[in-house]
């Protein structure tokens, strides 16, 4: 079975390596020469020339859905699917999977407008964490949604049986899309609360870490560390994705403002809020 993975970054490259280890015939595509070189060093056949990619049975889209300012941007996902459509003119793929984070409705529009409703399409949002890939790598419990029953069936066969990845199937592809941006936005809000609490503790002359530890003795409380601001593209991008869906995003907007003020606080000259660098 030939598998083509589009996007060989922090998610796509581990997916390519995992698929190769499962004895699949793997090809990688990326517009970045650096990503291509890195893939080659890991034993992945990769190219930045789309015409050099053979027709595959399975296409997995792992391209970024963020711009340089970590804001949501879906152009790369749409362009990747457009390239797949050109390969499907002779022999339709068995499956296209979008693992990139997208807003609800994106995959169905791709299915209808780019694939003309002819190519099975699923959304299986990634949950890869590079700092603990053993427990939170490619093979971890994931959500899958399909544009129709056929897509879901083929997707479950590929991910569940071929890749041996535990799956939770949801009722629609839109639920899967919403799931990913919601879980990242939720994490963002949790961190923002910790940042706000740390500032308050400082203002009333209490040790934040001791307060946090005291709170966390309660069975249903887990206040996070407050480090040096919310970093990493995923959380920043996905809270914007979620906020873009509604005019009722007061909590989401407040969390972003809290993080902005927290960064200003810890970086102010002479601030006692400075910590060693850390990434959430």
Please explain how this structure is put together.
This protein is of the alpha/beta class and 280 residues long. The chain folds into two domains: 170 residues, NAD(P)-binding Rossmann-like Domain (Rossmann fold), CATH 3.40.50; 90 residues, N-(1-d-carboxylethyl)-l-norvaline Dehydrogenase, domain 2. Helices cover 45% and strands 11% of the residues. It has ten helices and eight strands. An eight-stranded mixed sheet has the order 3-2-1-4-5-6-7-8, with helices on both faces. α3 links the parallel β4 and β5. α7 packs across α9 and α7 packs across α10.
Largest sheet: 8 strands, mixed
Order of neighbouring strands in the sheet with most strands: 3-2-1-4-5-6-7-8
Helix content: 40-55%
Could you tell me the mean pLDDT?
Answer: 91
Strand count: 8
Q: Which homologous superfamily in CATH is the superfamily of the largest domain?
A: NAD(P)-binding Rossmann-like Domain
The class by helix and strand makeup works out as alpha/beta
Distance between the termini: 37 Å
Q: What is the ordering of alpha helices and beta strands?
A: EHEHEEHEHEHEHEHHHH
Query: What is the 3D form?
Result: elongated
What Rg do the Cα atoms give? Answer: 21 Å
Low-confidence stretches: 275-280
Q: How many individual domains?
A: 2
| CATH class term of the largest domain | Alpha Beta
Assembly category: single chain
* Percent of sequence in beta strands: 5-15%
CATH topology title of the largest domain: Rossmann fold
| CATH architecture annotation of the largest domain | 3-Layer(aba) Sandwich
């Amino acid at each position: 079975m030939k598998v083509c993975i589009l996007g060989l970054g922090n998610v796509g490259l581990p997916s390519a390596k995992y698929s190769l280890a499962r004895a699949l015939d793997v090809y990688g595509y990326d517009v970045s020469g650096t990503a291509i070189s890195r893939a080659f060093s890991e034993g992945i056949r990769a190219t930045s020339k789309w015409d050099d990619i053979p027709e595959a049975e399975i296409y997995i889209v792992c391209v970024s859905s963020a711009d340089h300012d970590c804001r949501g941007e879906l152009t790369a996902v749409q362009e990747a699917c457009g390239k797949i459509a050109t390969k499907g003119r002779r022999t339709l793929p068995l499956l296209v999977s979008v693992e990139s984070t997208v807003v609800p409705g994106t995959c169905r529009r791709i299915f209808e407008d780019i694939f003309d409703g002819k190519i099975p399409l699923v959304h299986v949002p990634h949950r890869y964490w590079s700092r603990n890939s053993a427990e939170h790598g490619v093979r971890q419990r994931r959500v899958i949604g399909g544009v129709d029953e056929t897509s879901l069936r083929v997707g479950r066969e590929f991910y569940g049986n071929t890749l041996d990845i535990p799956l939770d199937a949801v009722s629609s592809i839109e639920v899967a899309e919403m799931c990913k941006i919601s879980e990242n936005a939720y994490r963002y809000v949790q961190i923002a609360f910790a940042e706000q609490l740390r500032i308050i503790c400082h203002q009333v002359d209490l040790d934040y870490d001791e307060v946090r530890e005291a709170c966390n003795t309660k069975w249903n409380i887990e206040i996070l560390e407050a480090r040096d601001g919310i970093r990493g593209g995923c959380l920043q991008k996905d809270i914007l994705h979620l906020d873009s869906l509604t005019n009722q995003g007061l909590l989401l907007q407040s969390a972003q403002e809290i993080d902005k003020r927290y960064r200003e606080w810890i970086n102010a000259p002479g601030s006692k809020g400075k910590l060693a660098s850390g990434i959430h």
